[in-house]
Amino acid sequence: MAWHDPGCTAFGPAACAAKPHLPGAPNLPVPCEDFNYEAALLACAAGERAALQRLYEQEAARLLAVVRRIVRDGALAEDVLHDAWVNIWTRATSFDPARGSARGWIYSVARNLALNARRDDLREADLPQETLQVLDDQASLAAWDAVNRAGAWADSAGRVGHCLSELEPVRRDCILYAYVDGLTQKEIAARVSAPLGTVKAWIQRSLVALRACMS
Q1: What residues have CB less than 8 Å from 57, skipping those under 6 apart?
Q2: Which InterPro entries does the record cross-reference, listed alphabetically (predicted)?
Q3: Per-residue pLDDT averaged across 90-100, rounded?
Q4: CA dihedral angle for residue 20, residue 22, residue 23, residue 26, rounded to 10 degrees
Q5: What is the rounded CA–CA span in Å between residue 109 and residue 198?
Q6: Average pLDDT over residues 188-207
C-alpha cells in the first residue's frame, strides 16, 4: 500500500496509502475467515489508521474484482477503488451496525462508486437512450453478480438483488445468463431447455419487471 499523492493529504496518511498497487494486489496476505469487519470499521471511524490497513489487506483483492467486473476497465477500476478506500476512511463514522453488516457497507461503497463511474462512461458515449438503458441494466446486474461472487451477497445485495429475488428462478437465470454471462438467447434456450420464443418473452417481461421494481 505504498502509494502517495499530494492531493489526498486532506484525508490523512492512511487515505493516501489506500490506493492499491495493482494488478492483483500480489503482496496481500490471505484473508482471515474470522475477520472482525465491524471492529475495524468502527476503529476507522475513531481515526485509527491501522484499521484501514487491516481492511485493505483483508478485502482489496476482492473489492478490485468486484469493481473491475462492473466498470470493465482496469485503469478505471484502480481509480474507482482508490476513491472507495478514501470514502471508507472518511465516511466510516456514518456506518451504523443496526442497519447492516460492516462488510456489506464496505461493498456498497465500492459498488455504488463503480456503478456511477460506469454510467458516466455510458453517458459520454452518446448512445441511443434504449441502448443506454440496456447497458445500465447490464451494469446493475454485473454489480449484483460481482458482489455475490465475492461472498457478500447476503450483506450487500442492494435493490437489484431484492428485485431479482422477486423473479421466478428460471426467469432470473435467463436475465443473468444474458446480461452477466453474455449468452445469446439461443444459447440460453438450450441451457434452460425452453423454446427460443419463450426465452425471449421471459427476458423482455423480466426486464420490465426489474425496471419497475428498481424505479
Answers
A1: 28, 29, 31
A2: RNA_pol_sigma-70-like, RNA_pol_sigma-70_dom, RNA_pol_sigma70_r2, RNA_pol_sigma70_r4_t2, RNA_pol_sigma_r2, RNA_pol_sigma_r3/r4-like, WH-like_DNA-bd_sf
A3: 89
A4: -70
A5: 37
A6: 91
CA dist 25 and 57 (Å) reads 9
CA distance linking residue 145 with residue 66, whole number of Å: 9
| Helices marked H in 26-168 | 37-45, 49-71, 74-90, 102-124, 129-149, 153-156, 158-165
Long-range contacts from 192-201, C-beta under 8 angstroms, 24+ separation: 194/170, 199/174
Q: Whole-prediction pTM value?
A: 0.61
Question: Alpha-carbon distance 107 to 162, whole Å?
Answer: 16
Domains of the chain, earliest start first? 8-127 (1.10.1740.10)
Residue 196 CB partners (closer than 8 Å, separation 6+):
185, 186, 189
Q: Say whether pLDDT at 71 is over 80.
A: yes
How many Å apart are CA 196 and CA 91, to the nearest integer? Answer: 48
What torsion, rounded to 10 degrees, do the Cα atoms 164, 169, 170, 172 define? 10
Closest by CA to 55, choosing from 26, 15, 8, 6, is: 15
**Residues in Cβ contact with 194 at an 8 Å cutoff, skipping those fewer than 6 apart:** 170, 202
What is the number of alpha carbons within 13 Å of residue 68 lying toward its C-beta? Answer: 14
